[in-house]
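Notes from the 1:1 (GR / supervisor)

We went over the backlog. Supervisor wanted to see one worked example end to end before approving the batch request, so GR pasted a single chain during the call. The sequence is below; no edits were made to it. Supervisor asked that the structure be written out right there so they could see what the output format looks like.
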Amino acid sequence: MDLDVFIERHRESWQRLETLVKRSGRLSGAEADELIELYQRVTTHLSVVRSQTPDPATVERLSSLVAQARSVLTGTHVPAWRTFTRFFTHRLPAAIYLGWRWWVPAGLAFYLVTGLIAAWIATSPDVQASIAAPEELREMTRAGGAYESYYSSDPAGSFAAKVWTNNAWVAAACLLLGVLLAIPPIYLLFTNALNLAVGIGLMFGAGRGELFLGLLAPHGLLELTAVFVAAGIGMRLGWQVIDPGKRTRAQALAAEGRSVVAVALGLVVVLLVSGVLEGFVTPSGLPTWARVGIGVVAEVLFLLYVFVIGRRAARQGETGDVDASEREDVAPLAV
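Structure output shown during the call:
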């Protein structure tokens, strides 16, 4: 490529873009459209010069011009604290709220399956015998046994960190593996329902079910809701592979994938709270009503966060996706 010819050919466009950038506060609608078009065109020119004839002076001039135009188009820099606040007041709750048609049914199905299997185990000695030997069952379900002592098996801080890490991995797996036609989240939900049903069924079969539920409720309500959200949002991501709607499959997966990342980051905080409850409240000496009450309050606050703040943000147009200015630029292919 002849650089001098290239510069002469596009000099007028560059000068016009410089003029529009300097008049950025006084542009008409047509001029604003022209600014966008020239910004995309000069971005392409910069790419061509860098790849074919990387003249330092020309690259520096075009880089500065593109940066100035981008600043005009995207506005002033948003402080980090404002981005952080908006994430938790708009983007995250809206993303969770918009997926409620997936995760609420997932939670209801989880509780139904858990209840049916637990009832089957509790009322069937043959099923209990197939799970473990009678001596092992007595050891697990007796006062101070494995189920009851589990929550105080490690120092509270260490236990909370371990639980948080484990639950975060489960939630991440539900979210990210959901793209595989939504099958992994369904499998993970079922295995968790089965494990929980075994504990509930055995403890009720031993006549100590209420105590066991009293140990589960302080942290389990919020923890399980977070897992339901992860599974539901993951299944919604997988559904985009099957039915992307009016968007292309790539566009649908990209948009939903960015929302999944937002939910994943938010659930880390939610699961941290449930981990703290499991490490410090569940094994505490508080009466059962107080421990359960704390768990119920945490659950209600989360649901209010989603269905009040999240619904309001969704009605304002928030989708859980990143702002348009933060996505990749699409430059024209022609020079």
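Supervisor's comment: Confidence is low (pLDDT under 50) at residues 329-335.
Batch request approved.
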